């Protein structure tokens, strides 16, 4: 696994609404893998990931619409993986604090 490449690929997808909904689900899966391996990222990749997460949050409504045709947002994913809950983010029911999330040493929300 090349984590730097994965961060870049995630970044390419967070505002690309020409991707198929299935490719967007793959993006969410990729984000979960980055979440699992966050402590292995170098500082530059961590900063990129933070910036890409901010973009995804800004695009939450549009991304939710793009994904809703193929993804069931009624899921049992943990809320610390907020990208799986873009429906709640778009509705204002879940407000991830990106800045606080990335300040924690061990990246625990």
Explain the overall architecture:
The protein contains 6 helices and no strands. With 109 residues, it is mostly helical. The mean pLDDT is 91. The chain has one domain. Helices cover 57% and strands 0% of the residues. The protein is globular and about 35 Å long. The longest helix is centred in the N-terminal third of the chain and has 16 residues, at 21-36.
What labels describe this entry?
single chain; about 110 residues; mainly alpha
Architecture blueprint of SSEs:
Elements: H1 3-13, H2 21-36, H3 43-58, H4 60-67, H5 86-90, H6 98-103
Helix pairs in contact: 1-2, 1-3
Gyration radius, rounded: 13 Å
Average of per-residue pLDDT values: 91
Name the beta content range.
Answer: under 5%
Low-pLDDT sequence parts: none
What is the count of distinct domains?
Answer: 1
Number of helices: 6
Structural class: mainly alpha
User: Tell me about the biggest sheet?
Assistant: none
- The coarse overall form would be globular
Beta strands, count: 0
Instruction: List SSEs in N-to-C order.
Output: HHHHHH
Give the proportion of residues in helices. Answer: 55-70%
Distance between the termini: 24 Å
């Amino acid at each position: 696994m090349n984590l730097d490449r994965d961060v870049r690929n995630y970044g390419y997808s967070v505002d690309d609404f020409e991707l198929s909904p299935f490719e967007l689900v793959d993006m969410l899966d990729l984000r979960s893998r980055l979440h699992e391996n966050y402590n292995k990222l170098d500082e530059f990749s961590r900063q990129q990931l933070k910036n890409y997460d901010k973009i995804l949050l800004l695009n939450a409504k549009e991304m939710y619409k793009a994904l809703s045709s193929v993804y069931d947002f009624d899921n049992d994913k943990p809320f610390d993986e907020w990208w799986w809950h873009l429906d709640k983010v778009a509705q204002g029911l879940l407000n991830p604090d990106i800045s606080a999330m990335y300040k924690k040493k061990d990246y625990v929300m």
